[in-house]
Amino acid sequence: MVVSPRALLQSTIAADPSDWCIARFSLLAAQIRRAGEAVNPAFTLTAQDYPSDEGGRQELQEQLRQGHYGQVWLMAPDLDNGPDPAFFEAVEAAVAAGTQLVIARDHTDLGSSMLAFGGCLASVTETQTFKRTWPDFASDNEYVNPLCPGIDTPCVVTGQNGGVQICRKRSDHPLLAFDALIPGHVVMPAHPHEGVIRLTAASQQVLLSSYSITSGREQITAILDEAPGRGAVLHHSTFHHFADFNLEVERGAPEFVLEPISRQIAESPELLSDWRAYVAAVVGYAMAG
What we know:
This protein is an alpha/beta fold and 289 residues long. It has one domain: Rossmann fold (3-Layer(aba) Sandwich), CATH 3.40.50. The protein is 23% helix and 18% strand. The protein has seven helices and nine strands; from the N terminus they run E-H-E-H-E-H-E-H-E-E-E-E-E-H-H-H. A nine-stranded mixed beta sheet has the order 2-1-3-4-9-8-7-5-6, with helices on one face. The longest helix is centred in the C-terminal third of the chain and has 16 residues, at 273-288. The N and C termini lie close together (7 Å). The mean pLDDT is 95.
């Protein structure tokens, strides 16, 4: 299989500076480009929000169906305002043809447009947990803030925005073969209300896990699904592992973000070395085919 040297960093919302639009993932975009170009100088990255015009949507769907992109990084902050089902059908076609897919959403029902996935990506709707489709999920909400009533189960508190969590390597997979700051672990950005992901298929394995600082329970951070005959799918428990705000709090966040920040990364920027190595590993793994 010939892997396209093109990558797509895509949000599931239209451009909106007051939300988690793709402009708030500029550091991720820069690291993806840097890593891709190190492997293949012809590597290119398109970073975009979901097109608001019909022509743009049709072009995007056609590119996906034709295998235009070797990897797709899907940041999903939508809440009943995401792409139409035809977009997800196009992503299914891309993955079925070998495109690698990275998925990151967050708490409660954010990213719920992905419930439209079916076909070879049907397991996404179960691995990514949503309050509306998992009514038997434990209701002991770890995050309680009367100023943020929309943040509800399922979510897990791993730390403050701008701080880090120490994730345990749960696999010997090549994605984790880089030298980390702490042997056997990966330092990743933390977040006060990460989403919950779970194993739902035999083809899945846990790559990384950490712990809730509220309950002490183990939290799955990343799951890799390598079902045969299609591209790999990498699930993350939150897009805040990749957002500018969580990497450099000085870059700011939408006005609805009310939690106090941490200066941990700002005061010790070397804490991001694992993050850069991890993103580079994900990019390189996709390009290796």
